[in-house]
């Protein structure tokens, strides 16, 4: 094996290792981006209404809205 072939073999080995690392990073990021996640709402700050709390004034006010009537 010549010196050139040894250098090329070392470069190929380094590049293969780099490709493997990049593929692992891609897999991790794809899983993080598109994988399952837990949608947990945190507590809202003072003065803010939660759109997920059915006991909030937002939902109570919705029941007071009149439904449109249809004319026949």
Structural description of this entry:
The chain is 53% helix and 0% strand. It has helices at residues 3-34, 57-62.
Helix content: 40-55%
Q: How many helix segments?
A: 2
Q: Describe the largest sheet.
A: none
Shape assignment: rod-shaped
**Residue-averaged pLDDT, rounded?**
80
Nutshell version of this structure?
By secondary structure, this protein is mostly helical. 53% of the residues lie in helices and 0% in strands. It is rod-shaped and about 90 Å long.
Please specify the SSE layout and strand pairing.
Blueprint: H1 3-34, H2 57-62
Describe the structure using short key phrases:
single chain, 0% strand, mainly alpha, 72 residues, 2 helices
